[in-house]
């Protein structure tokens, strides 16, 4: 027991409209402090986050700490760093699989989920407030950010697509602005969901709809200049005068095959010896291997490419090269 003469006052900021969970969390805090202190304990909710000693922040599935914390300011400005580290931050997720356990940010002191038992939440709260008395206070001068991917977790084009989605644009409009196909946008979305550890599309919509995420990626669109965006594209799109998607895909296929062939010229004697597999071209085009094979067969019928079959039985492989 720690004797005290004055009642202990703990302002708490809980960023949620779930009153049932908020009242249960305040009850656990009051019960925990009454066991540790002899005097009275006053725990009150406040609407200002920076005026509270404990900040309970609810996150959407897949939301990371660097979505709402300025990582650059945290590393370079001591005032911002000590302001963030001077509070107790408790993150709450719907499920345990909705957050990445490999990211250990010094800002977040504890993580719980809505499905945790009362005993687990109580143990996390005890460690949150009384771990310093057992192991000493943490060193605020050396925050450990070395293992955090930070804002560089997503590729530039993936961030740009998220910015357009946060503005409410459709897939066709985004494909026109980014100069890519709708299939490529679907590939970007699957890559984003894999990186932020989201399996359901509904969870992806909740993550993108959160205020911190949508605001961050909306700023990326504002700094995007379409005239100079072609220099950062994996491939350039040829706009056909009729606006046909089929001729556009065939042109991009030819450009991809030329680029792959050129990259292998230092290994082979001549271009006639270079044969490309369907998977290699599909990876370069960022589309499925089945769509790629269907498109190459159409181009073979028109005489744009030629193919050979290597192997035998179930291990046979179609290889392609440009027609001379």
UniProtKB/TrEMBL annotation:
The UniProt record lists the keyword DNA-binding: yes
Pfam families for the chain: GerE (PF00196)
The entry's keywords: DNA-binding
SMART domains: HTH_LUXR (SM00421)
PROSITE patterns the UniProt entry points to: HTH_LUXR_2
Domain HTH luxR-type: from-to ranges: 147-212
Gene Ontology MF term list: DNA binding
InterPro entries registered for this protein in UniProt: Sig_transdc_resp-reg_C-effctor, Tscrpt_reg_LuxR_C, WH-like_DNA-bd_sf
Keyword DNA-binding listed: yes
UniProt superkingdom: Bacteria
Entry's Gene Ontology BP terms: regulation of DNA-templated transcription
Span of the signal peptide: none
Protein name per Swiss-Prot or TrEMBL: Helix-turn-helix domain-containing protein
The organism of origin for this protein: Klebsiella grimontii
Lineage of the organism: Bacteria, Pseudomonadati, Pseudomonadota, Gammaproteobacteria, Enterobacterales
């Amino acid at each position: 027991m720690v004797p005290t003469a004055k009642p202990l006052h703990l302002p708490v900021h809980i960023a949620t409209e779930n009153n049932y969970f908020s009242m249960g969390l305040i009850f656990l805090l009051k019960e925990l402090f009454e066991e540790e202190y002899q005097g009275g304990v006053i725990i009150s909710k406040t609407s200002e986050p920076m005026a509270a000693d404990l900040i309970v922040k609810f996150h959407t599935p897949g939301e990371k700490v660097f979505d709402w914390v300025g990582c650059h300011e945290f590393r370079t400005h001591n005032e911002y760093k000590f302001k963030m580290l001077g509070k107790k931050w408790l993150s709450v997720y719907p499920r345990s699989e909705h957050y990445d356990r490999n990211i250990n940010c010094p800002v977040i002191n504890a993580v719980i989920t809505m499905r945790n038992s009362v005993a687990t939440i109580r143990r996390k709260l005890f460690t949150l407030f009384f771990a310093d008395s057992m192991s000493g206070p943490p060193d605020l001068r050396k925050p450990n950010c070395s293992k955090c991917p930070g804002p560089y977790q997503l590729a530039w084009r993936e961030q740009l697509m998220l910015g357009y989605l946060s503005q409410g644009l459709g897939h066709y409009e985004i494909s026109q602005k980014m100069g890519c196909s709708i299939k490529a946008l679907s590939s970007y979305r699957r890559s984003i969901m894999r990186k932020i550890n989201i399996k359901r599309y509904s969870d992806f919509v909740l993550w993108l709809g959160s205020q911190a995420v949508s605001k961050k990626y909306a700023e990326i669109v504002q700094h995007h200049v379409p005239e100079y965006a072609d220099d950062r594209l994996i491939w350039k799109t040829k706009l056909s005068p009729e606006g046909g998607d089929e001729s556009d895909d065939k042109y991009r296929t030819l450009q991809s095959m030329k680029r792959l062939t050129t990259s292998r010229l230092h290994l082979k004697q001549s271009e006639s010896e270079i044969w490309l597999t369907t998977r290699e071209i599909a990876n370069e085009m960022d589309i499925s291997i089945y769509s790629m094979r269907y498109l190459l067969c159409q181009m073979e019928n028109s005489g744009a490419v030629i193919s050979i079959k290597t192997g035998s039985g179930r291990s046979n492989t179609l290889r392609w090269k440009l027609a001379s």
